[in-house]
Amino acid sequence: MSAVTAFELPVKTPLPQITMTPKILGPFELAVRWSGLDLSNSAVTRSGSWVKSICMILVCIVICLLMFLKSLMLMMDSAKPMTLEWVISCVWGFMALHGFASALCVVSWTRSRFLPQLQTTLSTLQNQQGPSCGLTDFASLYRRIVIGAALLITTWVLSSMKDRLFEGFQANSSEPFSIGYPVNLSTMYGLDPFVYLAVGISSSLAMTVYVLVYAHVNREWATFNEDLSNTLRLHQLAVRSFSLDFQ
């Protein structure tokens, strides 16, 4: 019997898919999820329940509607035109309208699942570039976002209390001053602090998403340009070496 030698051809195993891109929102993903504006799981196929989907949509509608009504109330204030009170009311009204528009942006981004799709695209690009490309520390950017968001939200919360807390009239010298909060239409029947807080949060979230998307896309763009310049440099060196060999 003749021995048969088996030859095994080397088989190239596919390279593992390495997802190096961190989540675009990073630690702020939880803030978006609990803001009431996240509709990424509002579909019944994702939430698993009609009741859960309807509750998520209703909460989002109520938050956006309150911000829109508050912006209209501020811009339609009865203050005399061209006075300081009128200017302040218009400025706050436009800022509240900006918060309402920011909330709509966050709702649209989460409803269309824009961020997960962009995450997949960036991960694919980094898998093609290799594990050493595009690594950037976002810790400093996260700190600046937290500081900016805290200042913006604090400004809105304090503005909700401005001119709302008042000292009651002193009937006689034996009665102390009382501090109260008017519950009427101008304060949206006591909902003013919550509406202003929602405006500050929605504005902060929209700016956070915009800044982080820009940072991630700009990182990949810079990495691509760097890889392209390195490739051109190596190509020029190879051509120069080839020409020197024939001189």
UniProtKB/TrEMBL annotation:
Pfam families given in the database record: DUF267
Keyword Transmembrane helix among record annotations: yes
Keyword Transmembrane helix: yes
Membrane-spanning intervals of the chain: 54-74, 86-109, 141-159, 194-215
Protein name: Lysosomal cobalamin transporter
Domain of life: Eukaryota
Organism from which the protein derives: Heligmosomoides polygyrus
Keywords, alphabetical: Membrane, Transmembrane, Transmembrane helix
